[in-house]
Every structure is written in C-alpha cells, then in structure tokens.
C-alpha cells in the first residue's frame, strides 16, 4: 500500500497534485506488483466547504477518472481544517 500526503494553502492545488501522484503511481503499479493500493491524503483550510466541493468537482471532472463521490472529505475536529482522501 502506498500513501501520499499533500498540503497546500489552496485546496484546488493540492487536489491537482494528488491526481498527478495517482497518475504516477498507476504507471509504477504496472511494473511493480507489490503496490496493491494507492491513497492520497490532503489537508486544507476552508471556511466555506461547499464552494471548495464545487471546485473539487470541476477539477475531478476535468481529470476524467474520478468524481466527487470518490473523494472522502471530512472536517478535522470542529476547526476550519479538512482532509480529503482519494
């Protein structure tokens, strides 16, 4: 299993980096059977999670392999920090 961590001031930037990592790992998995699953986890700050989810949805749609339903988003405690797992 591979787990990649991301953090960025701009949530959309880290999501794009997460997608790039998943693309890279998909190429590695073809040549290495030891990696059975790949996960990316990002942490970000957001006061309005609804607008961030809209932006994430657009980025995922542009990428073409994932949808917002594939992304797990959760609030960290009762703060304005969130995580996203893909």
Task: Kindly list the characteristics that best describe this protein.
86 residues, alpha+beta, 2 helices, 27% strand
Shape label: globular
Helix/sheet category? alpha+beta
Radius of gyration: 13 Å
Looking at how many chains there are and whether they match, the oligomeric state comes to single chain
Helix segment tally: 2
Task: Please mark out the parts with pLDDT under 50 across 5 or more consecutive residues, or reply none.
Answer: none
Question: Mean of residue pLDDT?
Answer: 88
> H/E series, N to C?
EHEHEE
Strand order of the largest sheet: 1-2-4-3
Query: What share of residues is helical?
Result: 40-55%
Largest sheet: 4 strands, mixed
Number of strands: 4
Question: What is the strand content?
Answer: 25-35%
Quick rundown:
The protein has 86 residues and is α+β, with helices and mostly antiparallel strands. It is 42% helix and 27% strand.
What does this structure look like?
The chain contains two helices and four strands; from the N terminus they run βαβαββ. The chain is an alpha+beta fold. The chain has a four-stranded mixed beta sheet with strand order 1-2-4-3, with helices on one face. Strand 3 and strand 4 form a beta hairpin. The two termini are 13 Å apart. The mean pLDDT is 88.
């Amino acid at each position: 299993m591979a787990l990649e961590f991301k953090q960025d001031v701009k949530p959309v930037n880290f999501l794009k980096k997460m997608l790039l990592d998943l693309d890279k790992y998909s190429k590695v998995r073809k040549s290495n059977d030891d990696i059975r699953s790949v996960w990316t986890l990002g942490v970000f700050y957001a006061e309005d999670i609804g607008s961030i989810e809209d932006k994430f949805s657009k980025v995922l749609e542009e990428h073409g392999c994932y949808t917002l339903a594939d992304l797990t988003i959760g609030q960290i405690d009762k703060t304005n920090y969130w995580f996203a797992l893909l």
